Amino acid sequence: MKTSHGVIQGYDGVAMVDDRHQVIVHAEAFGEVQEQELLEPMMEKGGDAYVADHQFRKRGPRFKDADKYKERHRRERAALSGKTVRFSPKDFTLSADQRSCICPAGKRLYRNGGNVVIHGYRAIKFRGRKTDCRVCEFRSQCLKHPETRGFL
Q1: Residue 25 in 3-state DSSP?
Q2: pLDDT of amino acid 151
Q3: pLDDT over threshold 50, residue 152
Q4: What is the average per-residue pLDDT within 71-88?
Q5: 84 close to 140: Cβ distance less than 8 angstroms
Q6: Domain limits of the chain?
Q7: Residue 27: Cβ-neighbour burial (10 angstroms; 0-12, 13-18, 19+)
Q8: Distance CA 99, CA 101 (A)
Q9: Which residues touch 79 (CB under 8 Å, ≥6 apart)?
Q10: Which of 71, 82, 97, 115 has the most beta carbons within 10 angstroms of its beta carbon?
């Protein structure tokens, strides 16, 4: 390929994309700098299509441990900003019948609603006893605003 630095061995990667559906229709590498002559060959071969797999990281075996790094990042970021790290659902133990769960402080929380949709996810809500939560040492980690909010 001719460049401003002389002739080098290299390739020009060209991709034909359907921008409306965000799909790569055809991609190929050419050994030419000028792309004007490449339109016709690209149009003739544009039948291949590649679709992005947005769920790959959830299924891929390489990414099975990714959540533990997300959790570590969340805790490190909270520590840098001086905020309290809040508990995640993984910190609670759900009973087999799904009618109660045990909080990190060891107290029983009782079901307060089922089939609730929160941020597009189906969830079950639980609530603790006021007498347990009012004096709990982990209150700031359970509630977003422990000083002004009610109880779980």
Answers
A1: strand
A2: 45
A3: no
A4: 80
A5: yes
A6: 2-44, 89-142
A7: middle
A8: 7
A9: 85
A10: 71
Q: Is 31 helix (H, G, I), strand (E, B) or coil?
A: coil
- What is the rounded CA–CA span in Å between residue 74 and residue 91? 14
Closest CA to 71 of 56, 57, 90: 90
In the three-class reduction of DSSP (H, G, I as helix; E, B as strand; rest coil), residue 33 is classed as: coil
- Note every long-range contact of 146-151, with CB atoms under 8 Å and residues 24 or more positions apart, other chains counting: 151/127
Give the integer Cα–Cα distance in Å for 81 and 69: 18
Tally Cβ neighbours within 10 Å of residue 84: 14
Would you state the structure tokens that stand for residue 80, as one six-digit string? Answer: 């840098």
What does pTM read for this prediction? 0.46
- How far, CA to CA in Å, does 152 sit from each of 113, 133, 145, 149? 12, 8, 11, 9
User: Under DSSP, is residue 122 helix (H, G, I), strand (E, B) or coil?
Assistant: strand
